[in-house]
Design brief:
It is a single chain. α2 crosses α17 and α9 crosses α15. 43% of the residues are buried. By secondary structure, the chain is of the alpha/beta class. Helices cover 36% and strands 15% of the residues. The chain has 17 helices and 13 strands. The chain has two domains: 222 residues, Rossmann fold; 167 residues, Glycogen Phosphorylase B (Rossmann fold, 3-Layer(aba) Sandwich), CATH 3.40.50.2000. α9 links the parallel β8 and β9. The strands form two sheets. It has a seven-stranded parallel sheet with strand order 3-2-1-4-5-6-7, with helices on both faces. The protein starts with a helix and ends in a 13-residue tail after the last helix.
Length: 410
């Protein structure tokens, strides 16, 4: 059985659920690594439910880059050493976090069987004996749990689909597609973040409910007097154009080049995950790396235009980028690629389809600022709060009868 590596790392903050309550078992990105949509939702549900958050190895096979080696070292530490008292204090109440041992691969049957056994034993051991009146709901944002889900001692299983992993850069698309098709047949409910993903799931015979991302308007609209980081560019050299997020092959290199050649100074904030060398080696583009979530509103406050220069790809057409509503909430001019997720907000931002249009609009907005009509259109962000999204998510994932049988077809 999997023992210490998984269960000693559990943070045991007030996870006791009362009668007729719900315990969530969540498989997603590592807790606290970055504020994903799943983390936003679960944080807002912890006031009335407990949760066991399961950190996984992720969906991409590790390579030999320094970034991947650092991740591997971090996983090994989580497997062999309990969390420190400091991290336990900072953990939200009603939340436990574990990092089960996992083999970093899913291509073969033996790899998937090994991971299913290791992870399910770790999770079931941490959950412990059943308690009367407590319904256990497993939620995953990643398809790699397809073989794990049937082995969990839970009542209800949900796939919260946030991306099309079959076309994600750097992933084994064939394996991800195969596991996702298996997963959707082993869950009781599917929730998707975009219409494109809903339509794709229909091709698998699945009817998914759609729930778009939310926004914390207070976080993004606040004004800060804190000093800017030393790497921040000087506006005397031209308008400052800002992007935050993962810098990876989804970026349109030619659009970024056009921005620095013809518009101003481009700052790309975030981790570089397979970023095109044409961006990372460009001496004009500033890439400071990942910075704290709390600092992003300060950067937005001092930027002239926020940009989202994604390429038009299957993966970008499927996604619902968290940063887009964050951009809108800052009150700053925003120019983004015409994609399904951005078109519905075309009255609140500038949505462009070509590099020439991008350059023209960015120049105009850097000079004149946010138009009044766009500012007015952004008022509907008030209806997009994470609190409202969490309430909707809660209604979607609840089983019709609870607690029930945990048996599902394998």
């Amino acid at each position: 059985m999997v023992m210490n590596a998984a269960t000693e790392g559990a943070t045991t903050n007030a996870a006791g659920a009362g009668p007729d309550s719900v315990e969530l078992v969540v498989f997603s990105d590592d807790w606290g690594r970055h504020p994903s949509s799943c983390q936003h939702l679960v944080k807002r549900l912890l006031g009335r439910h407990s949760a066991l958050w399961v950190n996984t190895i992720g969906t991409r096979s590790p390579g030999l880059s320094w970034r991947d080696l650092g991740k591997i070292a971090g996983k090994l530490r989580a497997w062999v050493r309990p969390r420190s008292g400091e991290s336990e204090v900072s953990m939200p109440a009603n939340l436990r976090v574990i990092s089960p041992r996992m083999y970093p691969g899913f291509r073969t049957g033996w790899q998937r069987r090994l991971n299913a056994r290791w992870v399910s034993e770790a999770v079931n051991t941490t959950l412990g004996p059943r308690r009367d009146g407590v319904t256990r709901i497993a939620v995953t944002t990643i398809p790699i749990v397809a073989d794990i889900f049937p082995m969990l001692d839970v009542d209800h299983r949900v796939y919260y689909c946030v991306d099309d992993f079959s076309v994600w850069p750097g992933l084994d698309g064939k394996t991800m597609d195969e596991m996702e098709r298996t997963l959707v047949q082993r869950v009781d409910r599917v929730v998707a973040v975009s219409q494109t993903i809903v339509d794709r799931l229909k091709t698998m015979g699945v009817e998914a409910a759609m729930l778009t991302h939310g926004i914390d308007t207070g976080h993004w609209s606040r004004v800060s007097n804190e000093p800017l980081p030393g790497w921040w560019p000087d506006r005397v050299k031209g308008p400052i154009l800002l992007f935050w997020g993962v810098i990876d092959p989804r970026m349109d290199v030619e659009w970024c080049r056009s921005l620095v050649r013809r518009c101003g100074q481009l700052v790309l904030v975030g981790p570089k995950d397979g970023a095109p060398p044409a961006l990372t080696k460009n001496p004009v583009i500033r890439l400071p790396g990942a910075i704290p979530y709390s600092v992003l509103p300060l950067l937005a406050q001092h930027a002239d235009v926020l940009v989202m220069p994604y390429a038009d790809l299957p993966v970008t057409r499927a996604m619902q980028p968290l940063k887009f509503k964050e951009y809108l909430a800052t009150g700053k001019p925003t120019v983004v690629r015409a994609l399904p997720a951005t078109r519905e907000w075309s009255d609140a931002a500038d949505v462009v389809a070509t590099a020439d249009e991008l350059v023209r609009v960015v120049k105009e907005r850097a000079h004149s600022g946010l138009p009044g009509a766009q500012r007015e259109a952004r008022k509907r962000l008030a209806d997009e709060s994470w609190e409202a999204k969490a309430d909707a998510f809660e209604r979607l994932i609840m089983p019709r009868t609870r607690p029930g049988s945990s048996a599902l077809p394998g």
